[in-house]
Write a structure and sequence with these properties.
It contains eleven helices and seven strands. Strands 3-2-1-4-5-6-7 form a seven-stranded parallel sheet, with helices on both faces. The protein starts with a helix and ends with a helix. The relative contact order is 0.11. It is of the alpha/beta class.
Length: 332
């Protein structure tokens, strides 16, 4: 009976591998494609633009700071593989006014053709205890991290559906999979991208348009440097439980997953575990991916309980240290 069960399992897995390519999207060809990257003047966004440019794409960079855009343009152009490639820079705040974003996308498409891939990388992080954060911080993060992605995606989606080709990437965060101390404003804005992506994927999949949500961990970027200046101690200690990634490494993985049409894009073992743990009703690119999630979820939940326990321990220690410091100050 055991041999029969094993043989059945092997046959089932082989069948999944055979059927899987039939439901997987056809990879997007980047040579000659038009890729728009918001927040593309630095950090992960700039590295994504470089990676796409290396593969022959035409690039439109969208960001607020015109000086940084021009610097990024020069850096990206060093990686051209032919003399036809172009890097277009447009300065605009994608979170302020949809009509402005729509006009920017129209300008880009008039010069470089229809958008084949949109990477929503414009974002901002603000950390702090819930009761200490200004209400305006919640509004600002939802505006930049969420609405900025809505506006840009809304501006390209109609053409993508008409052409029956396209990729839309939302750069979330591991803090968009797991709510962490100090990230009540940031995590909620990044969680929102997941809901948007799931609903949008269901709408556009019949038109051969695929959505990717990227969940990078802490990455060595100028944005992280600014974020660390105001991070609560608890948040810093929790962040230190995972390694710091290079933006080039993150960018390569995001581009690879977007080309393949994968819904999830993660980095490293921790990222894979979080993706499986939080898959819920998320779309899958292949039956194999779904089977892996089913098999690993129980084990990963056990591991996650140890992580959560360690986070709670960090928070309790910090609270006790502050209490002792207050007592010492009173008796001094």
């Amino acid at each position: 009976m055991l041999l029969l069960a094993a043989a059945f399992l092997v046959a089932f897995v082989l069948l999944l591998y055979m059927v899987s390519p039939l439901i997987s999207p056809k990879p997007l060809a980047l040579p000659g494609a038009h890729v728009v990257v918001t927040g593309g003047s630095s950090g992960i966004g700039k590295c994504i633009a470089i990676e796409c440019f290396k593969q022959g794409a035409f690039i439109t960079l969208v960001a607020r700071n015109e000086e940084k855009l021009l610097q990024a343009k020069k850096e990206i152009e060093k990686h051209s593989i032919n003399d036809k490639q172009v890097v277009l820079c447009i300065s605009v705040d994608v979170s302020q006014d949809y009509s402005q974003v729509e006009n920017v996308i129209k300008q880009a498409q008039e010069k470089l053709g229809p958008v084949d891939m949109l990477v929503n990388c414009a974002g901002k992080a603000i950390s702090g205890k819930f009761e200490e954060l200004e209400v305006s911080s919640f509004e600002r993060l939802m505006s930049v991290n969420y609405l900025g992605s809505v506006y840009a995606s809304r501006a390209v989606i109609t053409t993508m559906k008409e052409r029956r080709v396209g990729r839309i990437v939302f750069v979330s965060s591991q803090a968009g999979q797991l709510g962490l101390f100090g990230f009540t404003a940031y995590s909620s804005s990044k969680f929102a991208l997941r809901g948007l992506a799931e609903a949008l994927q269901m709408e556009v999949k019949p038109y051969n348009v695929y959505v990717t949500v990227a969940y990078p961990p802490d990455t060595d970027t100028p944005g992280l440097v600014e974020e660390n200046k105001t991070k609560p101690l608890e948040t810093q200690l929790i962040s230190e439980t995972t390694s710091l990634c290079r933006p080039e490494q993150v960018a390569k993985q995001i581009v690879r997953d977007a080309i393949q049409g994968n819904f999830n894009s993660t980095i490293g073992a921790d990222g894979y575990m979080l993706s499986s743990l939080t898959c819920g009703m998320a779309p899958v690119t292949s039956i194999t991916e779904g089977l892996q999630q089913v098999v690993t979820m129980g084990l990963f939940r056990i591991i996650a309980l140890f992580y959560l326990g360690s986070f709670d321990s960090i928070i309790r220690r910090c609270m006790m240290q502050r209490a002792k410091a207050k007592v010492a100050d009173k008796t001094a």
